[in-house]
Design brief:
single chain, 329 residues, 9 helices, 4-stranded antiparallel beta sheet, two-stranded antiparallel ribbon, alpha+beta
Length: 329
């Protein structure tokens, strides 16, 4: 069985908002070291620490390692800050991982991937039915052919002047017509199965191609975003500890350098995706033979650990916003 991941719109939106929020915090904390600012009469790093503490624990799902380092970086920034009279809301924005236009394209790709996966899942029961019909037809044809051969053997042992010869010839002709009819029906089922198998293969390949394209688009941009976040945190430490003499600060910097961004991105995308488990039918037949019942596909929600089905209408109305600038804090 193969696995394919289909992002869920609302979960993906939440994950991208979290990535952008963490990036913005790291960016502004870095700036705070050289140009301090207060929010609600509190230094910005303190504001960030309180904001993270008050957020729901699932807000940063998949980003916990980076958030822990961000908190340590905020503490370091507090230690290195200078006095400032600036106060008020921070208006600087660090942008978003995706623009509104890109968000729309991603959303359309997600919806299309969901449609293709559902179509592939729906075609598998039709193949199972056709396989069962084909096997029944094959068994029926085989029986007819055995009866016909037995009748031919019987006739070959009789002389033309035998009393039952004419009757046996009529029965042979009747059996032959039934074999031809069964053969025609069996060939039609074989062609139908081949056509359905080709359709299944095209759906599967199109589905896999789109999933790969979508995952590459999401992974690359999120990875760049998180890498920049880590660079901002490392820069904050460098600005505070100019001569790299503070061992504790350098330990935090080592943790930053040890973060595997690619693994975090992969985990992040899986956590906000449904998993579609499906077979490669051609591979399955080649491995097990045609008589083995064909497997089905199933959609599994990783977050809920249960099977789900979502039609196009439900999917298209499940996400009201976008991942663009309107969703950034």
């Amino acid at each position: 069985m193969y696995r394919l991941y289909i992002p869920q719109a609302k979960s993906l939106e939440t994950s991208l908002q979290s990535v952008d929020r963490v990036h913005r915090y790291a960016d502004l904390i870095k700036d705070h070291v050289t140009t301090p600012v207060t929010v609600f009469d509190e230094p910005y790093p303190v504001y960030v620490l309180k904001k993270i503490a008050s957020d729901d624990r699932n807000t940063y799902q998949g980003l916990h390692d980076i958030v822990e380092i961000l908190k340590d970086t905020a503490y370091i920034a507090c230690a290195g800050m200078t006095s400032s009279n600036r106060n008020g809301t921070v208006y600087k924005t660090s942008g978003c991982t995706f623009t509104s236009s890109e968000t729309k394209d991603i959303y359309l790709m997600v919806a299309e991937l969901n449609r293709r996966a559902t179509s592939h899942q729906d075609i598998l029961p039709h193949l199972q039915d056709l396989q069962e019909q084909w096997l029944d037809s094959y068994n029926h044809l085989t029986k007819r052919q055995i009866i016909l051969k037995a009748q031919e053997k019987r006739i070959s042992l009789l002389g033309k002047d035998h009393a039952s010869y004419d009757g046996d010839m009529k029965r042979w002709l009747n059996y032959k017509l039934k074999v031809e009819s069964a053969t025609s029906a069996h060939n039609a089922l074989t062609n139908n199965f081949r056509q359905m198998l080709y359709k299944e293969r095209r759906l599967r390949l199109d589905m896999e191609e789109l999933e790969e394209e979508l995952c590459q688009l999401l992974s690359l941009n999120i990875e760049i975003r998180l890498q920049k976040t880590l660079e901002n945190m490392a820069k904050t430490i460098d600005l505070v500890d100019l001569d790299c003499s503070n061992t504790r600060y350098q330990v935090v910097k080592s943790r930053i350098q040890g973060v595997n961004v690619r693994d975090i991105v992969e985990s992040l995308l899986r956590n906000c995706s449904m998993e579609y488990e499906y077979p490669n039918i051609q591979e399955f037949i080649q491995t097990t033979g045609f008589s083995e019942p064909l497997p089905s596909g199933e959609m599994i929600s990783l977050s809920r650990h249960r099977k789900v089905r979502m039609d196009d209408k439900e999917f298209l109305t499940s996400f009201q916003g976008n991942f663009g600038e309107g969703t950034c804090e």
